[in-house]
Structure formats: C-alpha cells, structure tokens
C-alpha cells in the first residue's frame, strides 16, 4: 500500500499529524471529521495521527488492535486506510458508541426513514419526566426535558437489532450535551451553575445531527466492503475472543493513573437512559469492568496494599512502586480528602501488567505497540508511568521500549495542586 495521506474518512490531503507535535493526544482534530464527529469524546485521540502510524508500518498485512478502544478512533482509522482492526472496550456505554460508529449501516435510506419516523412519532407522544434522576432534572429545563423524553420514547419504541437503530440511538446520545443549557462541555463534569448561551432545541438538534450522519454515510465507502473492522466488549487485561499472534500493531491510549473517572464521564447519558440512578450505581454498572485508574475505584475496605504489591505482576517494579505507594499512604493521612492514591497506583500498574501479558499473547512476534500516555503526581508524589509501563512490557516478553514526548503538562503553576512538571507522549514498545 502506498503511503498516502489522502484517505477514505478524511478526504482532504493533510501533512502527517505525527509530524505535528502534541496532536496525538487530543480529540480536537476529529471534531471536523466524518463519523468521528458524531460523538464528542474529549478523552479520545487524533484519528489522522493513528492513520499515519498505520501507514508507516513496513510489514504487511497490518492488523491493528486497540485494547482501550474508547469511542473507536483507532478502528475507524484502520478502516480508513483499509487494514483489519479490532477494538476492545470494557465500558458498556462507550462500547455501544464505538460499535454504532464502526459497524454502522450501509442502508442510508432506512436510517433516514427511521429518523423521520422517530421525529413524527415523538411529536405525538405523551411525555412524563418526573422519574428522571436529579442530575437530569438539573441539567434540562422542563420543556427541553419533555422533548428529549418524547424522542427517547420514540427511539425505544422502534428498537431493533440493527446498525440503523444503533445509529438512531447514537443520534440521540450525540445531542444530549448540545441541548443542555448548563455547562457540560468539560466531558467528565456537569456544571449546573454554569450557563451556556442559547442551546438548540432537541428536535432541531436531533434533525441536524441526523443530517450530518446521513451526509457522512453518503461520503463513505460501504461499511460492508470492509468487514475486517469490529469492536468487542471485553477486558484489555484478558483480550478474550482474540486469537494468539493476531495483531501486528497496537495503537491505544489506556486510562492514565490520574484519577479521571471514565464511569462518571458518562453519568449524564447513562442517567438519561435510565441505566444508572446516580453516582452510587456507577461502580456496579461501569467501574468494576475497567482498569483501576481513579481513587473512587479502590476504597480502603476493598483493597489490601500489601497483597497487591506482592503480586507477581508487579515484580519488575516492586521496589520503586512500593516506595511510592507507602509515601502516598503516609501523605494522605495529612490531607483532608484522604484519597486512596496509594491503592490506585498499585492497582493501576497491577492491571496494566496484566494488559501487557494479554498483549504478548495476542500480538505477533515481532510487533509494535504505541501507548499514548502521560505521567502523574498524585499529592505531588511523582509516578514515572512511562518508565514503569515500559519495564512491565519488557518483563512480559517484548524486546524494548522508548518514550517520545509530545507535550509538557502542569507547567503553568496557577491553580495547581502540586508543582511537579509532567508530560505526555507516546510509549513505543517493540518485539
Ligand atoms: C483514553 S480512553 C481511549 C480513547 C480512545 N483512544 C478514543 O480515541 O476514543 C481509555 C478507554 O479505556 C477504557 N477502559 C478502561 N479499562 C478498560 C479495560 N479493562 N478494558 C478495555 N477498555 C478499558 C475506558 O472505558 C476508556 O474508554
């Protein structure tokens, strides 16, 4: 395959994003791209950059794996440059988002007719909004919530197992933040006190996103012409349902050990659809499936630091990680919040060591893995994330690792909880 940057999903020719520093770790570029723009995922990374990484592989055929698929960026990029791709995502809601995008429909007329039907039917539906949880009541004025409720009931009435219906569902998901007048832009947080200017009405926003989706579908090659790309609901620590020696390239971005809570990130959407009632339901519905990268995931009552540190998975970094975790255990006692960062750090590397072991099984020898990752400093204690992940990769059977920094973080001191300089970049693992 020639190394062209003129690709299927991203029609205009552009210089390789890999050459432009700092872009690989943000979703910003994707917001103007077909398919990617259907759902804004601020924890996502750049699709054009993933394409360049795939195209730069010399050994063919390339078979791409993303064990932390998120909104499906890597797999859409694989589709775009016509190589096989499998994404694994453990978050049940994000899995459905990625699947709706990657395994979308070729029957554009059926999707367009369903959109019309849903809107027509919705206008006649008697609405009932009292049952929505408090978060939803605070995020939408009554008239907006009534329209959203009509659309939701109408979408649910025509539910079926099909790519078209999955896209209808995604169309509704995609407008939920757009039509809220409160601050929902910061993906993880909903800020009911922060007002946005003139959000669009739900019916208008739904039609408008449906038009964008229809336009994008027309601009793409039929998805059935490339059935080698798919999204699986599963656990990166196991990579179940993937055969041994399958992947030649891994392009991924795991959660960082920085307390970002992926379960909380979709609380608005999952609350709207009745999948959780509140924050308390997130552990059972979402968090228990994920690698442990936030303190909420590791309450003291459930995790024994000594047991985790004694695990064979942590053997390659045991001395250093024990030191950091014990330091965090000491510092937390001096803090009001007493966050369990000591447990989070231990569990995070334990889980990521399992990921490397699973990747060693499903990757060919040799193969390449690229992790977009950043370091962290909970309570100001530095955690050398890239170095430890690299060492765990080598201990699981890969040959070597190298870190390519793309940007500094935490260099503007104002309002920061600590002053430890951090960075972000790509951890390349070979072998
Ligand atoms: C940084 S995001 C990936 C974003 C993705 N690169 C994109 O562009 O959309 C990390 C993802 O890993 C997922 N995740 C966390 N633990 C997981 C696990 N054990 N197995 C699979 N996915 C997991 C999270 O739900 C989240 O979607």
The portion of residues forming beta strands comes to 5-15%
Please trace the helix and strand order, writing H or E for each element.
HEHEHHHHHEEHEEHHHHHHEHEE
CATH fourth-tier homologous superfamily of the largest domain: Vaccinia Virus protein VP39
Helix content: 25-40%
Bound molecules: S-adenosylmethionine
Assembly type: single chain
What is the CATH architecture descriptor of the largest domain?
Answer: 3-Layer(aba) Sandwich
Spans of 5+ residues with little confidence (pLDDT < 50)? 1-22
**How many distinct domains?**
2
Shape: globular
Distance between the termini: 23 Å
Q: Structural class, from secondary structure content? A: alpha/beta
Radius of gyration: 22 Å
**pLDDT average, as an integer?**
90
Structure write-up:
The chain has 431 residues and is of the alpha/beta class. The protein has two domains: 22-93 and 227-430, Rossmann fold, CATH 3.40.50.150; 108-219. The protein has helices at residues 47-55, 73-80, 92-102, 108-123, 134-139, 142-157, 163-175, 202-219, 262-265, 267-272, 282-285, 305-309, 318-332, 341-362, 385-395, and strands spanning 63-66, 84-89, 182-183, 191-195, 229-233, 247-252, 363-374, 400-409, 422-430. A seven-stranded mixed sheet has the order 5-2-1-6-7-9-8, with helices on both faces. Strand 1 (63-66), helix 2 (73-80) and strand 2 form a beta-alpha-beta unit. Helix 4 packs across helix 7, helix 7 packs across helix 8 and helix 14 (341-362) packs parallel to helix 15. The chain starts with 46 loop residues before the first helix and ends with a strand. The relative contact order is 0.12. It binds S-adenosylmethionine (SAM). S-adenosylmethionine is lined by residues 41, 43-45, 67-68, 70-71, 73, 88-91, 94, 235-237, 253-255, 262, 290-291.
């Amino acid at each position: 395959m020639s190394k062209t940057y003129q690709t299927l999903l991203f029609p205009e020719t552009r210089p390789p994003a890999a050459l432009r520093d700092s872009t690989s770790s943000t979703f910003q570029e994707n917001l103007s791209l077909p398919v990617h723009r259907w759902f804004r995922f601020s924890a996502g990374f750049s699709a054009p950059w993933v394409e360049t990484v795939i195209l730069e592989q010399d050994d063919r055929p390339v078979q791409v794996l993303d064990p932390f698929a998120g909104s499906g960026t890597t797999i859409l990029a694989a589709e775009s440059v016509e190589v096989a791709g499998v994404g694994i995502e453990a978050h049940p809601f994000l899995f459905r988002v990625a699947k709706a995008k990657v395994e979308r429909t070729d029957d554009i007329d059926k999707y367009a007719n369903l959109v019309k039907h849903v809107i027509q039917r919705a206008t006649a539906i008697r609405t009932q909004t009292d049952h929505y949880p408090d978060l939803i009541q605070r995020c939408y004025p009554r008239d907006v919530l009534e329209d959203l409720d009509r659309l939701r009931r109408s979408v649910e009435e025509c539910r079926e197992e099909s790519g078209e219906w999955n896209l209808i569902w995604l169309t509704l998901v995609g407008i939920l933040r757009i039509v809220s007048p409160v601050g929902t832009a910061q993906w993880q947080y909903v800020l009911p006190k922060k007002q946005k200017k003139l959000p669009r009405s739900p019916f208008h926003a739904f039609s408008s996103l449906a038009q964008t989706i229809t336009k994008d579908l027309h601009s793409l090659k039929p998805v059935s012409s490339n059935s080698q790309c798919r999204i699986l609901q599963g656990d990166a620590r196991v990579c179940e349902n993937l055969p041994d020696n399958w992947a030649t390239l891994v392009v991924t971005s795991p959660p960082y050990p920085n307390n970002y809570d992926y379960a909380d990130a979709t609380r608005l959407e999952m609350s709207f659809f009745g999948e959780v009632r509140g924050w308390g339901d997130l552990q059972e519905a979402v968090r228990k499936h994920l690698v442990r990268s936030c303190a909420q995931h590791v309450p003291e009552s459930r995790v024994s630091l000594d047991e985790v540190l004694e695990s064979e998975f942590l053997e390659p970094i045991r001395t250093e990680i024990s030191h950091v975790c014990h330091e965090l255990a000491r510092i937390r006692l001096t803090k009001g919040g007493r966050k369990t960062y000591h447990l989070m750090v231990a569990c995070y590397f334990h889980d990521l060591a399992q990921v490397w072991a699973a990747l060693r099984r499903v990757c060919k020898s040799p193969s390449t893995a690229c992790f977009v990752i950043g370091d962290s400093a909970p309570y100001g204690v530095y955690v050398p994330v890239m170095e430890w992940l690299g060492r765990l990769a080598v201990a699981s059977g890969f040959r070597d690792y190298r870190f390519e920094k793309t940007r500094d973080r935490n260099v503007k001191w104002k309002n920061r909880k600590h002053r430890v300089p951090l960075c972000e970049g790509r951890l390349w693992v070979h072998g």
